[in-house]
Predict the structure.
Amino acid sequence: MKIYTRVLAVTACAAMLGGCATTKTVDRKIAEAQATTEQKLESVVGQVEGLQQKQQQTDVRLDELSQESREALKRAQEAGVLAKGKVVFEQAFTEDRIKFGVNKHELDKNAQNALTEFANRVKGLDTQYFVEIQGHTDDTGGTPYNDDLGQRRADSVRRYLSREHMVPLNRMSTISYGDTLPAESNKTKKGRTANRRVVLVVLE
């Protein structure tokens, strides 16, 4: 009987020790799971904060864009032609690079050279791109005429970039602002000259 009692005692003790070991193992696993969950939560919080910072930076950049770039970006996004939805750069061609005469849309040699430089810059991009070509005029004509003239100026630029530099037509679009978005006052000859221009907005 004494031997039997001792065996029971030993067995009970072993069971208790086993139970203690099992409890410690469970506690350890719970602690590890909690630590992993906290790490994941911290990672998610960090990602959210990073996205918020990037959004704030994007908002600042959008505020810094010209009206022409903002509207070009909006049109491209609405048309679904952009992957990233941002302006790479904007280049305005005014009287010192592309000089249009009164009621003229033809490109002279200086204009062609300027567009050659532009084409090389665009083709050197290591990403997909889209170019919006915007035509502008002074206010010496009526609205219908200026709208048409601005369109002819934009079209002549698009045609040159496609024919001479193989910029894909499906990566370019044109729009005329006519005389609605002057760069300078139309009250002076210098201002009117500056307003006879094209603006190229490169997007990705």
In short: The two ends are 90 Å apart (CA to CA). The chain has two domains: 1-64, 66-203. Confidence is low (pLDDT under 50) at residues 2-17, 54-60.
